[in-house]
Write a structure and sequence with these properties.
The protein has 310 residues and is of the alpha+beta class. It has helices spanning 2-30, 71-78, 81-106, 135-146, 152-167, 185-200, 220-225, 260-271, 296-302, and strands spanning 34-41, 119-130, 173-184, 205-211, 214-216, 239-249, 278-286, 307-308. The protein folds into 2 domains: 29-43 and 116-308, no CATH class; 73-106. It is built from 9 helices and 8 strands. The longest helix is centred in the first third of the chain and has 29 residues, at 2-30. The radius of gyration is 30 Å and the shape is elongated.
């Protein structure tokens, strides 16, 4: 009886071992890699301020001097004495109320914004590159270490430099993706955070970050030698992925990625956003640590919606 059990146990153990090894390899192959992050900004609704006119306006009293338009101006206009001046004031108030209501109903500015809840576009541009384009990792590392992400001008500089780093070497591009949605500013921050968190969740370790001028991460040597969890990463992969996420006042229409020109146009549009419109930005890239690369399996599983362009 014992011999029969041993006879069945042996192949069963072998099968369990094979399954463990296979799934262990798959898990290792699909494990996310190190990642870098640069970002900052906020989704505050723009405030409105009122500045009182200096001189020359209606003073609300009965005076006759000072350059305002008092009753002496209104009386001759209507020619009805005291009744004429009172009637003129009522007409003036009615017209003012009408104009104020009209402006409020139309709301906002030429980009179709409402003062209470202005329109905001949340957009994402992603680029898949061959791992041979290691220049990108170095440039983004330097940008993270030196950028001022706590000011509007600093964030625009980060956006421009990251976009330019990608635009300079289209020969390494293999795939890309764009996503854009327009909503009120009240919901824009939630959408922005959703996109950013989805990308960050693909990292097993966020090894370098500069968000709102809070720099975290060590030198490249320390990243590899000082953290045991990174020792398992070996240069067996093929790809690098860079993601740019922005929150922008007004409309931002990015083309769907089907060819190289579409990706180039999207990056140029993103890079051209000025500080007067840019609310928030996130630049994310993986892998970040030197010597760490991304396998084809990892790339396909984590970025299934990328469109091939090369």
């Amino acid at each position: 009886m014992l011999e029969k059990i041993k006879h069945f146990l042996k192949p069963l153990l072998i099968l369990v071992l094979v399954i463990t090894l296979v799934f262990g390899d798959v898990s290792s192959a699909l494990a996310a890699r190190t990642g870098g992050r640069i970002g900052g900004g906020s989704f505050r609704s723009p405030s409105r301020t009122y500045t009182a006119p200096r001189g020359g306006g209606y003073r609300g009293g009965y005076g006759y001097g000072g350059g305002g338009f008092g009753f002496p101006f209104l009386i001759p206009f209507f020619g009805f004495g005291g009744f004429g001046s009172l009637f003129s004031i009522l007409i003036f108030i009615a017209l003012a109320n009408f104009l104020i209501k009209t402006v409020r109903n139309l709301g906002g500015d030429q980009m179709g914004n409402s003062y209470d809840n202005p329109k905001v576009s949340v957009a994402k541009v992603q680029v898949g590159l061959l791992a041979s384009g290691r220049y990108l990792q170095k440039e983004l590392d330097q940008l993270a270490e030196t950028a001022d992400t706590n000011t509007a001008s600093g964030r625009v500089m980060v956006l421009q430099e990251a976009s330019l780093a990608l635009l300079r070497h289209p020969e390494y591009w293999v795939s890309g993706l764009t996503e854009t949605s327009t909503t009120g500013i009240d919901a824009a921050e939630s959408k922005f955070n959703q996109l950013a968190l989805a990308e960050r969740s693909k990292f097993s370790a966020e090894t370098l970050s500069n968000v709102n001028n809070q720099l975290r991460g060590d030198t490249k040597t320390e990243l590899l030698a000082g953290k045991g969890e990174l020792s398992k990463f070996t240069p067996t992969g093929e790809y690098i992925v860079a993601s740019i996420i922005v929150g922008v006042q007004g409309n931002l229409d990015l083309p769907e990625i089907n060819e190289v020109d579409h990706l180039q146009q999207s990056l140029q549009q993103i890079a051209a956003i000025g500080s007067d419109r840019l609310l928030a930005v996130e630049i994310l890239w993986t892998p970040q640590a030197e010597g760490d690369t991304m396998s084809r399996d990892n790339f396909v599983v984590n970025y299934p919606n990328f469109r091939l362009i090369a």
